[in-house]
Amino acid sequence: MAENIPPLPNFTRWPSFPFEGEMRVKPLAAPVEVEPPRSGEDAADCVACDTPDESYIWISERWRVRAMDRPTGLPMVLILECRSHLDIGDLPNLLAAELGVMTVRLERAIRSLDGVARVHVNRWGDGSAHLHMWFLARPYGRLQLRGTFLTLWDDILPVIPEQQWRENLALVAAWLADFGGTAIAEPPHIQWESPSTLNYTDNTDAAVSQPEQPEQPQRPEQPGQRDQRDQRDQRDQRDQRDQRDQRDQRDQRDQPTRYSTPIGEETTGLHAGNTSDGVIPTQRTAVTDPATSL
Q: SS3 for 123?
């Protein structure tokens, strides 16, 4: 008797579906009469309530944001939790209003990261009773990751570098801290170690070790070359002497004539000399007593 195998759904042929090849649908299990309790139904056994603030990237009075314990395939995967041990349907109006604000704020912070195109926001609530919202960043340009199967691709894609992951966590925490709360995540520190030994090269030793180059013998000077050199030296000396004489004459011609009257003396007249002979007129002064002239 032929086995009744249901046909594969249409989404298995979507470009975003991460699998291909021969597949078959699992048999559907029978429903149970009583569902088992979720993890942390009792606040005394709740993992989220017992986790210290140091394990989160950002905290405030009523909300906390945590990341995975290691990098995954997506640029960023974060979880938003409320401090109170409540599920989404149990939130009072104040926390319900803040949940909307925190959802938008965290989505914007993740979308501000380089290489992030969209942020998928999900809430399932079947695993843990404590309210937690999932935020998954889709890489920019990866159109095959659009839609429903982004969570599956997170386990398939190559893991991003840990340093980039920690930098993204610090950026998101700082973004949230600008609106309040405290950023816990910090950017990665530079890992640097000083060398145990230093290699020092003494350049003096290298210079001493190099052999000396022998001096190149000078070519003997021909008689004609020596006469030309003597004539050139004499001409240069004569030009220098002429230039020095011209400079001295120019300095004497440009030197100004100065007149001065000593303190306590008063000019009483001008004695004209023989200007035709180039004699400069001189001043005749009489000495006066400053005390008697008052």
A: coil
